[in-house]
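Appendix C reproduces, verbatim, an entry submitted by the partner laboratory led by Prof. M.T., so that reviewers can inspect both the input and the predicted structure.
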Amino acid sequence: MSTRKSLHIDTEALSTLALVKAGLISPVDKLMNAKEAEEVNATQMYKGVPFPFSFILAPVGNKNHKTLSTVVKGEVIDLITEGAKVGELTVDETFEIDPKARLTHIYGTSDISHPGVKNTMDRLGTISVSGDYHVDYPLIEDNINRIQNMITKTGAKFVSSLMLAANPLNRAHERMIRQAVSDSDLLIIFLRKPFTSEGLRYDIRYNALSTYVDNFLPRNKVLIVPFENSYIFAGYNELILDALLAKNHGCHQLVVGKNHGGLGLYYDKNRLNSVFDHFKDININIKTVDEYVYCDTCKTLVGIQTCPHGQHHHVHYHSASIMKLLQAGMMPPPILVRKEVSANILASLFPDRFSNLQELYYDLMPGSGLLEQQSEEQFYMKLAQLYQTSSLT
């Protein structure tokens, strides 16, 4: 039995440590010491590349505080997650941090009413540790291998990327994805997998996105990989870290909407190139696309910059509002969400919703006359087709 001291970290910290160790946030490849942390926080640069705040490890908890208060340089400590050893760290230095200042560097505020601030405050201690470490976290290595194998398999020379929550997937997302596919050999969709339980579960969002990609896009042009959206990707610095992550996975371009939360601080409406100026040292192309709306006069999706009709003709793709329809068990109109996607999500959200699905199906739906077992997803699909009939409307 090990007599070493232990540092207890949650899965979110473990994931982030693994991400950095794999070189996916390069040039950051280690925990920063006090001098490095102070310099990065002041300059928002690291080794000549934009990096918004210091990369440190300062886990909360009385046991952790006791450990970090007593360790010495060169001491090896175990890293523990959920009761299991996940790695080791060789102590180089420990130093005190100001949690409020740390929160301000990440989120631009330390106001506890900010949801990100609250979540991170609950996980943040007052002593940080630096030193060489290794951790076991197979998901990171699996993502790297899947992306490299796909690039090799397709011979892709120009790889685009999208960071997408798809919470839920809507027609505007589809248009952005299709546009990205059209101007690249391969599109990597990093599907955000947060460490909170807000919104749709990851598996539901993954299945909905796969339904669209597998059935409505060319084969071998899109790869979906899970992207664990830890706290360092929160706040107004998200876009810088997204760009680093995409580049270090082998992508040449990152596609973002002009309404992206992290773009506002960099995007000058009078000078489009300002966003590119900020990212020139990251060496990845940032492509911005217009916000899409449905225009009831154009009768299609349009960019707000290209549609001549006023806002009163526009239907906006507001994710939270679409989510409310789905959570209420209602099928969103097909102009908002493709019926195949809605059917997939509703069947997952409300399993065994109908006491006698087959009877309901045959009472309401036209059919071949053959008695065939129908799934809830197929029922929603047929229901959507009835909604879209026009002879009596």
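The chain has 14 helices and 15 strands. Additional entries are available on request from the coordinating office.
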